[in-house]
Amino acid sequence: MTFDDLLPPVSPAEAAELALLATGPVLLPGEEGYDAECLIYNLNVPLEPALAVGAVDAADVQAAVRFAARQGRPVSVKTTGHQQVHPARGGVLINTRRMKGITIDADRRRARVEAGVIWQEVMDRAAEVGLAPMSGSAPLVGVAGYTLGGGLSPVFGRSQGYAADHVHSLEVVTADGELRHVTPDSDSELFWSLLGGKGNFGVVTALESTCSR
Known about the structure:
CATH topology of the largest domain: Uridine Diphospho-n-acetylenolpyruvylglucosamine Reductase, domain 3
CATH class of the largest domain: Alpha Beta
Radius of gyration: 17 Å
Largest sheet: 6 strands, antiparallel
Number of domains: 2
Distance between the termini: 51 Å
Shape: globular
Number of helices: 8
Helix content: 25-40%
């Protein structure tokens, strides 16, 4: 038994309080849509959070993080769930799959993507202007999770290095619920901690990275 298993369930009243602040769905176990929010690629670690939040924007992420902090609950984040390693019992799950914003700057060879974007979506948009993102071999993997884990690609790895090395900025909700725009100059410790540290230092809601020609 872990500490997470000892946390009490989230009450319907508490969930309703968060639902008033969030645009996306806020779901308790057993409610319609809960299982879909918790669905992951790695079936060896089924997700069983006390509350699932389907974030549609950074404001939803902030509301969920602040809610979890008030209740002393851990936070888990997923898009596709390829690398999920913890069942999130007693915690708040933030599902970012609805956060689909993509902006391609062809002149600067950069892509800004939100946390729910998968590589295939960026590849399709970047190809329209003759660019290729620092993707891995699996197009259905989430961009944020792949990049935050380092991102060693069999496609670009030998010539370009890690995907994380090509990130210019991150938008991240930290444990205090604040949304921060982080660069190597504005906050170098947080910036480099996020790149390789996965989700342990905040919830990344968007990132900007170099594309290759």
